[in-house]
Each structure stands twice: as C-alpha cells, then as structure tokens.
Amino acid sequence: MKESKIKFNTKTIHGGQSPDPAYGAVMPPVYLTSTYVQSTPGGHKGYEYSRTHNPTRTALENALASIEDGARGLCFGSGMAAIDAVLKLLSPGDEVISTNDLYGGSYRLFTKVFANYGIRFHFVDMQNPEHVAEKINEKTKLIWVETPTNPMMNIVDVQAITKLSLNKEILVVVDNTFASPYLQQPLKLGADIVMHSATKYLGGHSDVVLGALVVRDESLAEQLAFIQNASGAVCGPMDAFLVLRGIKTLHVRMQRHCENGKAVAEFLSDHPKVKKVYWPGFENHPNHKVAQTQMKDFGGMLSFVPKNDTLESATSIVESLKVFTLAESLGGVESLAGHPASMTHASIPKEEREKSGVVDGLIRLSVGLEDIDDLIDDLKQAIG
Q1: Are residues 229 and 258 in the same domain?
Q2: What is the pLDDT of residues 368-382, one digit of tens each?
Q3: What whole-number percentage of the chain has pLDDT above 70?
Q4: Is 139 part of the annotated catalytic residue set?
Q5: Distance between CA atoms of residues 102 and 145, nearest Å
Q6: Fewer beta carbons within 10 angstroms: which end of the chain, N or C?
Q7: Given this model, what pLDDT does residue 2 score?
Q8: Model confidence at 3, in pLDDT bands (50, 70, 90)?
Q9: CATH number of domain containing 115
Q10: Which residue range forms the structural domain that includes residue 318?
C-alpha cells in the first residue's frame, strides 16, 4: 500500500507500519533490550544500542512521519526534551522569535536555560505576522510558533509566518500539541519542524510522557538525530508502544473531542455567570477565519473566565467539579480542568501573564470523551 494513496484515518492505523518480520506480529513488539548482538565488530542488523535506535521507537517514529507527512520522526523522553533538542541547533548570539502567550514550560526553558547561553528571545503577538516581521534580523535563526496557543486559544497563521522566513535561513517550528495531526498539519503549511508533547492527544490516555519532532527535510532530521543520540533524552520502548497504540485511535478520539468541545464552548458562552470564552470555533473569535483555513475542526481545548474574575472564583469552580478532574496536562480521554496562573503558567511572571490574558480568573478545560450531558451538568453545578 503506497503512503501517498491512503487517507489520514487509514494512516493512523497503517502509516509507516508493517507486520513484525520475526513472527508477523500485527502490533510492533516492545523491545525491552539495551543492546543487540553483533556478528562481527560493527556488524549488526541496524540496531546496536537502544539510546541510538530501538525497533519499537523506530515504529513510532515512522508512524509519526506518516501522519504528519514528514521525512522523519524523532522521539524523546518528553515534549520539553524535544524542544531542548531543537534549541541545541542554535549558537550563542542567535535570536528566536516566539509568541507572547507561550506555554509556561517552553517559556521557562527559553528564558531560564537557553538565554544563559547567549541566545536572545523575542516574545510578540503572533496573531499579527507583522509583529514577527518587525523582529526579524540577520541574527534570527528560529521562529517558534504555538497554535492554538496555550491557554488563550489564539491561532497563528502558519503560512504567513513561513513566508517571512523564505530565503533567510530561518527555521520555523510549530508546536502542534493542541491541534494534533488530525486537525492541523504544519509541514504542509511550510513549517520545517513540528513538535508534539505526545503525552497529550497522540498518547490520548494520560498514561505516558513522551515528546516528538517530525521534520520536513532529511538533512535537518540528521542533525536532530545526532543531537537526540548525543544528548540521550530518548523515550523508552514501552512509552513508544503506548503512544503508537494511542495514534491508532487518534482520528475517532479527536472527532469526539471536537464534538464535546463545541458543545461545552457554546454552553459556557450562553451562561450568565461566564464573562468570556476562548475557543477558535466561534465566528467572533479574532482568528476564526485563519482557523477555518488551516484546521480541520476546532478541537477540544478552551478557556473561560467567570463573571466574577478573581482567583477565589476560579478556585471555587475548579474545586467543585466532579466529572472534570483538576489536574495538569490535557488531551486524554478524561476531561481535565486547570488553573493556568497557578499551574501550567506559574513560571511566567504575573505581569507578563496578564499582558497576554492569563489572568487569575482564567480556567482552562481539556474536554474529554464523556457523555456531553454529564460534562455540562458538572459545569452547571460548579459555576452555580
């Protein structure tokens, strides 16, 4: 079966995959081995040490390359390890442009780790590509895009950003975690690298931590593979197996995430005790048309601010939820609620957070696969 001939839903199950050659296992085995026998020094069957390569990890990397339409996939011990590998492509004096409502963990890695090595970061409102253009200079080597953004659900026009990097030797990387490859494929929009916290929608069951990169160009993939091996922040084979299993149901899960997300967003929008709902599916969302262009649907992530926009009000709501679970992370089958200011974005200074809309009253929801009536009833009783 030719990869170019099959559609996305089929790729999630068969893309980059073939039965195991040893015994014909339909699912790739979990190769729990650190090393591999050699017939002569340097003579092996493609695997010598599992930090460098592991057959289970290879199966996942091939699947990821298939569903993102990339040249190569690379898997890491976490999403942050994947981001770390990309930034190791840079040198002191290089500059990076990113969004001003970036995920807190990415912001922390940028400003508290890599800034110490002479790399300069600019955070701008990427909803307007002109803000990116204003910061580009001869030292700019990387544009880091997050879309939809976490937690404000802003949409960045990936094609418009990639056009700014043409003929400038600037890499464009897109954090595609919130959308998943089901909703959005940044490599087709001109990006060079796609990053996923595969812990989220790709794994889909809140039982694994794993990060991934999918690269459009093979030579760039080779550079990143060198860093992957040299730094050693790889995922284990069991983790790779779990994410590979999750990918096989990605398309059906995302359909329900989108259905339930839409219903919850509309319910909250009509609620008299809700001040503001952030969800790109609304026609009055400032980036709705861009989302329609580059996304298949609008996903299961949204944020809202109660009418009484205070820390106390937000805390009361999230602590009163019974079906939604108060917890970090997102993208699992279960619905989760989070308070960004004190959880995922606590590492960002309050003044910086509030500039982008991450106020103390903001609540973020990852809408899961439960019955929609139960989710709405839960929000009703919690909001009051």
Answers
A1: no
A2: 999 999 999 999 999
A3: 99
A4: no
A5: 9
A6: N
A7: 58
A8: low
A9: 3.40.640.10
A10: 251-383
Q: Give how far Cα 124 sits from Cα of 136, 174, 334, 369, Å.
A: 12, 15, 33, 34
Tokens of residue 277, six digits:
């709902």
Active-site residue identified among 11, 57, 200, 253? 200
- Residue 81 reports pLDDT greater than 60: yes
Domain count, the chain: 2
Q: Please check whether residues 227 and 258 belong to one and the same domain.
A: no
> What residue type is assigned to position 371 of the chain?
D
**Domain identity same for 223 and 281:** no
Euclidean distance between CA atoms 277 and 147, whole angstroms: 17
Indicate the residue among 181, 214, 247 that finishes a domain: 247
pTM: 0.96
Which residue in the list 11, 69, 101, 103 is annotated as catalytic? 103
Residues 209 and 191 in one domain: yes
Catalytic residue among 20, 36, 47, 51: 51
- Clarify whether 20 is annotated catalytic: no
In the residue annotation, 175 being an active-site residue is answered as: yes
